[in-house]
């Protein structure tokens, strides 16, 4: 399809270049300061908070004897005080004012009250080292249009109107939402005042003009909705601020959709140039690393939604050169210039957008019983996760069902049972049993969550940006929106598959080791048995063509998916969507898992998401991105939640003639094979190893860790090792 | 070795998928064992010998001693506290590799059937796109023409684009048989001067150049690849360019010497032959300029 808009890179004038470069430098300053205090252990999104090490928050007193702050009004009042008390940050190089300073839970005792804790489930969750997802927060996405059309003033009127319409006895929902909006109005006014004050002391005409503009925009946004592109970005930045402060929410809707009307209107009326739009976007990305998406199909699937603005988003990420969490939704008709530009920038910058794939995400989601037209509106707004902004409560990325623990208990069952039960089939049967116990306990926890989360930690921010909660007076997690889904992520797939394959090959087929010898080796954590360990490890592992392990991976995947989908939650029949995303938890989950038959030592990390382990390719089949991509595509859970493929591409490969074309083909191929998400880095081996050795010398190196981007220097040695291992696989 | 069916199977030393180095687009490159040239700089030394060979990666050895126990010829010895493989004694029975779980000992050369190779090539098909496909390389893949014919036929049936990476030192009849399946050719020209060619590769280039001319006449799609080995064939550029200008080549590539084969020589227990300094970008550009003087636009 021929684009009817420019696809050129935006050229920057010296003035805008200076602004963006200075924002980059400010980010670098803040990052190095954080790194100094956190000693390279920020193993998460970089996020955009401005670090004030000495600032302390004095929360309002709790109404409870135990000091816990929970429920709509206590939390909302605390949030309102927080935004009023925190340092008001304005950067004269940014197009936007404000910034957040930390997650509120670090400063106030906001949590679920003890009497609502599901103590009856703690034993089973502990036994399997389950991350149950009960009381998980903020993994949903708002529809930015709701806020942009109403502004804070309009949102306040809406809350008050529906309070009158519904006239509830318990007004805490509306009281809480009103506190949030009032707090944000006060915060916008504070930013306006701060910018005005800074302008008065500023002699540089460009900076002074900018500060005055920030002041004027923020004064307006106290009540009025945004009219211009820059005002819209400023409103969104304030949303990011309050969203992050409360439970680190980070979903931002489809940026090239909700900002497009403002961009088109301003450029049509001559108020906005492309470089100014790039500056506004860069300022927004500096403000926070909220997850967002560009491109993708329109709801009826008839056309690609990419526009000139999609290209400007890529330009802004490129010029700013800090971690940004942007996804490009790929489909057969995706704008080829946009996809190519994204890859060119990854080549130049080392990191960039991720690639969310439409077939696996959309057709997979439709298998849950939703129309494809709705599935196309489900976009990538998290590390790996997707949601229909404003219309779905999709709780994802908060559970980890550790199939490695299911294998551990299955091995124990077989070891302790009758010797006649020492068969692969029996072992798998026991494994299947334990997987079901894990999944069932998570489902039970989700019922508990559904009944109690709203009175503890309601989605105060997202409720304002969703279709239904304010209208119904219901938290989005308890039916404020029409669509509720609950995700369960199965992890350690390759660890399990390789273990079954090792037993099949070495114990059952070749008889090089007996069951007893294997059990003994596991009990001894391979101590003094390095040769046996390597024998079990060095088989054709999951990912190698035609491996036994692939068969076991598929079988484990099928069973996991089946127990997730065979029923909803036991009490409320809430729908479950299976996924396979580990995030960086492979380290902490691995620490709790004893030795496994794939030659893994106790405490070592488990495998990543649905990926083969590093080093899976050996012998005749040397590693290739396509080999890994094929493996990941084959074991997708298949219901629309993303199980990512991490690719760390050698810069030389991408630089070579035809390299980008080959990657374009790989992305489309992975999409057609059922893949859902590709996270990509483009580095050289030398650069990565040098940065691993002395990260402080590479303060600008941005890498995609799992689903999120981060400065390499901020990661712990173990997390850096994950990236290095992947690259050297 | 068993009497293997060279029509239905071949010894491979590697399948490199998603390569953008050997032909157009993304390709699976199938490296076959066996070569009839002895290029002094060969970076795939494990592909020269047509039989399976023992590879030894000393840094992976955990000292379990199993290889010592199974070796019938006492080829595994300890010298100055280090485990080494005495290649003089080794009878290439390869039993030791089967006992080495640390993968310090491994075998280069795995026999793969036409069916299995076809399955693996076809599985990669989604990644090939409109340009890519499979490249048969080596070694000298044309020495395995019986097998090659079979796998070319299967690829043609599966509509997978095929390229043959060859040094051309085989009977013309082999080309005729391959041409029945319309592959493209990546054709190496290592030296134009017969004496230089013989010195560098151990063989005369008359047949190679004749085959190239006939291949050109046949209308086959040809990419010529000219390795540049500093200090060895640096004076050949213009003459190679002249050869290129006489044939109907779609593309000419200058391939600079690199040292990626170094660790393979060590694993095979062989000396690496010549080891010139890899050429700089400027050197390669000078070679390209020499080609350009003869009217040949070459890529580096």
Task: Describe the overall structure.
The complex is a heterodimer of chains A (729) and B (300). In chain A, strands 2-3-4-5-14-13 form a 6-stranded mixed beta sheet. Chain A is of the alpha/beta class and 729 residues long. Chain A has a domain at 14-110 and 139-245 and 251-288 and 291-324. The model of chain A has no long low-confidence stretch (mean pLDDT 94). Chain A is globular. In chain A, α16 (424-456) crosses α21. By secondary structure, chain B is of the alpha/beta class. Chain B has 2 domains: 13-50 and 109-267 and 279-299, Aldolase class I (TIM Barrel, Alpha-Beta Barrel), CATH 3.20.20.70; 53-108, Alpha-Beta Plaits (2-Layer Sandwich). Helices cover 32% and strands 22% of the residues of chain B. Chain B contains 11 helices and 13 strands. Chain B has helices spanning 66-70, 95-99, 114-123, 125-128, 145-157, 172-179, 194-201, 206-218, 237-246, 262-268, 281-293; strands spanning 9-19, 27-32, 53-56, 76-79, 82-85, 105-108, 110-113, 133-137, 162-166, 184-188, 222-228, 251-256, 298-299. A 9-stranded mixed beta sheet of chain B has the order 7-1-2-8-9-10-11-12-13. A two-stranded antiparallel ribbon of chain B has the order 3-6. Chain B has a two-stranded antiparallel sheet with strand order 4-5. In chain B, β9, α6 (172-179) and β10 (184-188) form a beta-alpha-beta unit. In chain B, α3 crosses α5. The chains are: A alpha/beta (729), B alpha/beta (300). Chain A binds chain B through residues 530-532, 534-535, 537-538, 545-546, 618-622, 624-627, 629-630, 653, 656-659, 661-662, 664-666, 669, 672-673, and chain B through 12-21, 24-26, 62, 64, 66, 101-103, 106, 110, 112, 116, 119-120, 123-124, 126-129, 131-132, 299.
């Amino acid at each position: 399809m021929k684009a009817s808009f420019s696809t050129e890179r935006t050229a920057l004038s010296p003035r805008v270049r200076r602004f963006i470069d200075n924002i980059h430098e400010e980010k670098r300053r803040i990052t190095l300061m954080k790194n100094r205090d956190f000693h390279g252990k920020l193993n998460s999104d970089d996020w955009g908070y401005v670090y004030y090490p000495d600032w302390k928050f004095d929360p309002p007193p709790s109404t409870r004897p135990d000091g816990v702050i929970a429920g709509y009004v206590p939390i909302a009042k605390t949030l309102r005080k927080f935004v009023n008390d925190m340092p008001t940050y304005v950067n004269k190089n940014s197009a936007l004012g404000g910034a957040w300073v930390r997650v509120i839970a670090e400063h106030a005792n906001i949590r679920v009250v003890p009497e609502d804790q599901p103590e009856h489930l703690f034993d089973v969750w502990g036994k399997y080292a389950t991350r149950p997802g009960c009381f998980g927060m903020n993994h949903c996405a708002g529809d930015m249009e709701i806020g942009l059309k109403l502004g804070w003033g309009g949102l306040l009127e809406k809350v008050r109107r529906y309070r009158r319409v519904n006239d509830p006895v318990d007004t805490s929902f509306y009281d809480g939402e009103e506190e949030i909006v009032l707090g944000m109005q006060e915060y916008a006014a504070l930013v306006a005042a701060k910018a005005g004050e800074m302008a008065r002391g500023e002699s540089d005409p460009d900076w002074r003009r900018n500060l005055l503009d920030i002041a004027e925009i923020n004064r307006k946004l106290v009540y009025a909705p945004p009219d211009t592109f820059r005002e819209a970005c400023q409103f969104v930045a304030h949303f990011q601020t309050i969203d992050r402060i409360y439970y680190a929410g980070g979903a931002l809707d489809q940026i090239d959709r909700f900002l497009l009307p403002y961009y088109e209107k301003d450029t049509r009326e001559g108020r906005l140039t492309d470089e100014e739009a790039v500056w506004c976007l860069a300022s927004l990305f500096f403000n926070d690393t909220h997850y967002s998406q560009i491109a993708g199909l329109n709801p009826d699937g008839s056309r690609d939604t990419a526009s000139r603005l999609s290209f400007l988003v890529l330009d802004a990420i490129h010029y700013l050169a800090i971690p940004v969490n942007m996804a490009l939704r790929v489909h057969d008709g995706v704008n080829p210039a946009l996809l190519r530009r994204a890859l060119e920038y990854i080549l130049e910058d080392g990191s960039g957008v991720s690639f969310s794939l439409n077939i696996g995400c959309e057709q997979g989601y439709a298998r849950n019983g939703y129309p494809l037209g709705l599935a196309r509106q489900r976009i990538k707004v998290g590390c790996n996760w997707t949601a229909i902004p404003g219309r779905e409560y999709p709780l994802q990325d908060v559970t980890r069902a550790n199939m490695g623990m299911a294998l551990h208990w299955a091995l124990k069952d077989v070891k302790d049972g009758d010797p006649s039960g020492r068969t692969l089939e029996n072992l798998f049967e026991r494994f299947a049993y334990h997987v079901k116990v894990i999944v069932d306990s998570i489902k039970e926890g989700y019922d508990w969550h559904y009944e109690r989360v709203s009175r503890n930690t309601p989605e105060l921010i997202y409720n304002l940006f969703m279709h239904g909660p304010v209208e119904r007076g219901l938290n989005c997690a308890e039916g404020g929106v029409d669509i509720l889904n609950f995700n369960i992520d199965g992890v350690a797939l390759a660890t399990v598959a390789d273990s079954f394959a090792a037993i099949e090959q070495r114990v059952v087929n070749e008889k090089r080791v007996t069951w007893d010898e294997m059990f003994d080796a596991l009990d001894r954590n391979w101590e003094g048995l390095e040769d046996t360990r390597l024998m079990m490890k060095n088989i054709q592992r999951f990912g190698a063509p035609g491996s036994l392990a692939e068969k076991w991976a598929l079988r484990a995947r099928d069973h996991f998916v089946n127990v997730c989908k065979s029923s909803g939650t036991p009490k409320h029949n809430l729908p479950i969507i299976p996924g396979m995303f580990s995030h960086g938890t492979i380290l902490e989950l691995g620490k709790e898992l004893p030795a496994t038959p794939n030659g893994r030592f106790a405490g070592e990390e488990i495998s990543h998401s649905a990926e083969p382990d590093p080093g899976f390719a050996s012998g005749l089949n040397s590693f290739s991105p396509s080999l890994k991509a094929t493996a990941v595509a084959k074991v997708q859970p298949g219901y629309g939640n993303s199980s990512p493929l991490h690719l760390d591409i050698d810069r030389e490969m991408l630089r070579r003639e035809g390299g980008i074309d080959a990657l374009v083909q790989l992305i489309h191929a992975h999409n057609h094979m059922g893949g859902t998400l590709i996270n990509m880095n483009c580095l050289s081996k030398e650069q990565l190893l040098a940065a691993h050795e002395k990260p402080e010398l590479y303060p600008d190196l941005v890498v995609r860790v799992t689903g999120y981007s981060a400065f390499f220097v901020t990661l712990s040695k173990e997390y850096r090792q994950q990236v290095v291992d992947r690259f050297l696989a | 070795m068993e009497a293997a069916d060279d029509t239905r199977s071949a010894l491979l030393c590697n399948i490199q998928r998603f390569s953008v180095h050997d032909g157009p687009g993304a390709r699976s490159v199938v490296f076959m064992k066996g070569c009839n040239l002895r290029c002094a700089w060969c970076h795939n030394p494990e592909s020269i010998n047509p039989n399976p060979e023992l590879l030894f990666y000393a840094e992976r050895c955990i000292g379990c001693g199993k290889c010592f126990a199974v070796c019938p010829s006492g080829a595994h010895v300890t010298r100055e506290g280090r485990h080494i493989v005495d290649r003089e004694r080794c009878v290439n029975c390869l039993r030791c590799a089967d006992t080495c779980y640390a993968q310090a000992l491994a075998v280069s050369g795995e026999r793969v059937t036409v069916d299995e190779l076809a399955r693996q090539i076809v599985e990669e098909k989604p990644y090939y796109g409109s340009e890519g496909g499979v490249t048969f390389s080596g070694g000298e893949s044309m020495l395995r023409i019986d097998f090659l014919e079979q796998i070319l036929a299967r690829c043609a049936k599966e509509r997978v684009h095929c390229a043959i990476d060859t040094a051309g030192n085989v009977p013309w009849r082999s080309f005729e048989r391959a041409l029945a399946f319309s592959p493209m050719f990546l054709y190496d020209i290592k030296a134009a001067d017969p004496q230089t060619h013989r010195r560098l590769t151990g063989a005369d280039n008359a047949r190679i150049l004749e085959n190239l001319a006939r291949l050109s006449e046949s209308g086959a799609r040809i990419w010529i690849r000219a390795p540049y080995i500093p200090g060895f064939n640096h004076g050949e550029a213009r003459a190679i360019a002249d050869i290129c200008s006489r044939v109907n080549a779609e593309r000419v590539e200058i391939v600079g010497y690199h040292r990626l084969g170094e660790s393979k020589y060590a694993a095979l227990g062989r000396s690496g032959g010549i080891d010139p300094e890899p050429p700089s970008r400027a050197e390669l550009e000078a070679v390209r300029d020499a080609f350009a003087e003869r009217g040949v636009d070459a890529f580096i």
